């Protein structure tokens, strides 16, 4: 059909055709990419992202400059400096009361990224670059230097579970490991996960389907900060505007007006008259209620649901899970299942038969093993019904995850592990980012295998440095193998959906049967059954970050190794200093405004409940449901539901151009701004550096 000249359709086609015709000429001449010639918010000729993993190739650029320097003075200086800073600060946070109320008050990767950018660009601007100075300043601060620094610092800031377990053994069992042994044990537990991660690259790093949704915003920010062109100039300006906006807003709900962190209109109307209303709709305080229909204006709470980055399918599944959770927890309590109404609605504590806190020391011998006669006198501990149901769901979710991957991802598993392809490194993988990485020397699989075997040997050796082995060698091998299998399945889920499943409770239940009556050994199992899988997932994500930013694989290997070494040393050094100077406070269940041992106390409670009493609890005449435990998570902030649908449905399908250019950048800006202000508030007024400063009553 002929259309009149000047019609909107012809104009649209003309715009697209003329734009595309510029690709070969203008892009080569000016270096400006085609999409930068289009208006930022125009949806002309922009394809809607249909498959979740397509964001990896449609949002993230495959651009690469192999001539950029990586191992520079800036990389080493800022990488080591920020690694020390991150490791020390993360360890301090572990022993702070703010860690329970503000789980995001930690040294996050985005926080490290922003600090590294400010310092790196400042060094590039102020250090001379002529003559011998060029060794200190080889030119503009580039994306590969930046990525290496971020990987190193974030690896160091990931507080090792081994450190927390070693602290718990010191505090509650008066067993102190030699400093060298402790540091090697921390390092070995992390490197076991690193060795696994490297050997799983063919399956969980190289392919497009392994796109790690929560990392898209990190990569998008890195590329926006470092790539040139008019579009990225606008992206940088947009990022800093959103960053500043959330920075100045977030302090309001966090400090002067905390009611805004979790608002329940129904609770406000009820005004505290009904316990039922508070249990079902309360959400303002820890363990107040399950937060039905509550909403928040604090991004630090909203972002726990990852509404801007999780694929819509992941979010819908999580909403369904929340709905089931509301029903199950409320029903269990109000039907008085297992005497639930004799106890409080929500708590993670151990309770005695009288409803008071359970005295776990009253059932142990001086050697910290179970005394059956004392147990008969004191009785078994009790848990709240919500605690029990939540634990049951966690354990069931682990089994479901394993079955799901075996049923739906068998093709990928076979492709990765079939024949000898596992040791070849995945040359047949068709991924745009991976193909760009083929120009760089790869890390051989045997390097990672060597790291794994050496770490396993070191871990076994460290366990035999006490009069009685902390954990027998065969058990270390058993739980390491189990963790490897679990890491494959959970890695699939994290890589494709962004969702992570906790496994420590299921691992400790299993350990209770393998090592009955031995609380220290059951606690130590966390290093191999839990920490190894956790570290594997963390290392896999950093390997993918290196692939996305085209950081040479051996530079990524070196950055992760250096971060782990620095983190191990300063994790232990800071931990032992805090434990020595604050032992009585850390043993106190309440703690102070400055220090709290609640994290290491959880390991101790679990070691007693499952290590000393595991067999009695899980094989007693009472149903297992009343004897399981897990921290019942706050079941959701409804703000993330609205934001999730607005982002991953409306914007992705109706505003694809904006979605590709700004959605993930918005997430990075909101996360970064809120984390920086929360970091400042933690030390300025929340007591992380001393006494807390309360906001005046108004």
From TrEMBL:
Keywords attached to this entry: Membrane, Peptide transport, Protein transport, Transmembrane, Transmembrane helix, Transport
TM ranges: 76-95, 107-127, 147-172, 179-197, 209-231, 238-255, 316-334, 446-466, 472-495, 662-688
Native source organism of the sequence: Hermanssonia centrifuga
Main subcellular location: membrane
GO molecular-function terms, A-Z: oligopeptide transmembrane transporter activity
Protein family: Belongs to the oligopeptide OPT transporter family.
GO biological processes: protein transport
Location(s), subcellular: Membrane
Topology relative to the membrane: Multi-pass membrane protein
Family matches, as NCBIfam families: OPT_sfam
Name of the protein in its database record: OPT oligopeptide transporter
One GO term describing the cellular component: membrane
Region feature Disordered, mapped onto this chain: 1-22
């Amino acid at each position: 059909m002929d259309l009149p000249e000047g019609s909107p359709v012809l104009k649209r086609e003309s715009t697209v055709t003329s734009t595309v015709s510029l690709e070969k000429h203008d892009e080569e001449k000016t270096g400006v990419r085609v999409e930068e010639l289009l208006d930022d918010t125009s949806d002309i000729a922009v394809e809607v992202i249909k498959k979740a993993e397509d964001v990896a190739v449609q949002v993230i650029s495959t651009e690469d400059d192999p001539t950029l320097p990586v191992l520079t003075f800036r990389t080493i200086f800022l990488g080591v400096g920020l690694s020390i800073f991150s490791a020390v600060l993360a360890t301090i946070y572990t022993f702070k009361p703010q860690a329970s109320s503000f789980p995001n008050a930690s040294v996050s990767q985005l926080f490290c990224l922003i600090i590294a950018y400010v310092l790196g660009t400042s060094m590039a601007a102020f250090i001379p670059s002529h003559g011998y100075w060029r060794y200190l300043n080889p030119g503009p601060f580039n994306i590969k230097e930046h990525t290496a620094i971020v990987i190193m610092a974030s690896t160091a800031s990931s507080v090792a579970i081994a450190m927390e377990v070693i602290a718990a053994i010191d505090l509650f069992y008066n067993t102190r490991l030699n400093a060298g042994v402790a540091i090697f044990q921390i390092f070995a537990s992390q490197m076991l996960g690193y060795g696994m991660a490297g050997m799983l690259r063919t399956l969980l790093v190289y392919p497009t389907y392994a796109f790690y949704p929560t990392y898209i915003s990190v990569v998008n920010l890195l590329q926006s900060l470092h790539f040139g062109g008019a579009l990225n100039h606008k992206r940088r300006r947009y990022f800093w505007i959103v960053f500043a906006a959330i920075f100045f807003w977030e302090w309001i709900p966090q400090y002067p007006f905390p009611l805004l962190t979790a608002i329940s209109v129904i609770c406000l109307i009820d005004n505290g008259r009904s316990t039922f209303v508070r249990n079902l709709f309360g959400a303002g305080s820890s363990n107040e209620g399950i937060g039905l229909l509550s909403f928040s204006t604090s991004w630090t709470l909203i972002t726990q649901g990852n509404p801007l980055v999780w694929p819509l399918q992941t979010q819908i599944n999580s909403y369904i899970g929340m709905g089931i959770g509301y029903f199950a927890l409320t029903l269990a309590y109000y039907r008085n299942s297992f005497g639930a109404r004799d106890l409080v609605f929500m708590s993670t504590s151990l309770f005695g038969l009288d409803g008071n806190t359970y005295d776990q020391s009253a059932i142990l011998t001086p050697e910290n093993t179970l005394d059956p006669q004392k147990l008969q006198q004191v009785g078994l501990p009790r848990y709240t019904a919500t605690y029990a149901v939540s634990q049951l769901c966690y354990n069931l979710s682990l089994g479901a995850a394993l079955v799901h991957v075996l049923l739906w991802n068998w093709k990928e598993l076979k492709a990765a592990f079939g024949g000898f392809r596992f040791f070849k490194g995945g040359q047949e993988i068709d991924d745009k980012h991976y193909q760009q990485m083929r120009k760089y020397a790869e890390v051989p699989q045997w390097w990672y295998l060597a790291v794994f075997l050496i770490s396993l040997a070191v871990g076994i050796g460290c366990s035999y440095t006490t009069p009685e082995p902390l954990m027998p060698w065969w058990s270390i091998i058993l739980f390491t193998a189990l963790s490897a299998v679990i890491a494959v399945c959970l890695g699939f889920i994290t890589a494709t959906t962004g969702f992570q499943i906790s496994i420590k409770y299921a691992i400790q239940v299993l350990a209770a049967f393998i090592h009955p009556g031995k609380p220290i050994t059951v606690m130590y199992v966390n290093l191999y059954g839990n920490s190894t899988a956790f570290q594997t997932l963390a290392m896999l994500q950093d390997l993918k970050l290196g692939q996305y930013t085209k950081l040479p694989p051996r530079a990524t290997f070196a950055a992760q190794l250096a971060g782990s070494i620095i983190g191990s040393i300063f994790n232990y050094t800071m931990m032992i200093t805090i434990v020595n100077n604050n032992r009585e406070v850390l043993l106190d269940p309440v703690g102070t405004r400055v220090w709290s041992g609640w994290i290491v106390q959880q390991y101790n409670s679990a070691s007693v409940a499952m290590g000393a009493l595991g067999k009695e609890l899980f094989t007693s005449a009472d149903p297992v449901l009343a004897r399981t435990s897990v921290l019942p998570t706050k079941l959701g902030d409804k703000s993330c539901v609205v934001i999730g649908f607005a982002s991953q449905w409306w914007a992705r399908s109706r505003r694809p151009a904006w979605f590709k250019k700004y959605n993930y950048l918005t997430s990075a800006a909101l996360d970064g701004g809120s984390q920086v202000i929360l970091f400042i508030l933690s030390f300025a007024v929340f007591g992380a550096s001393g006494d807390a400063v309360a906001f005046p009553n108004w």
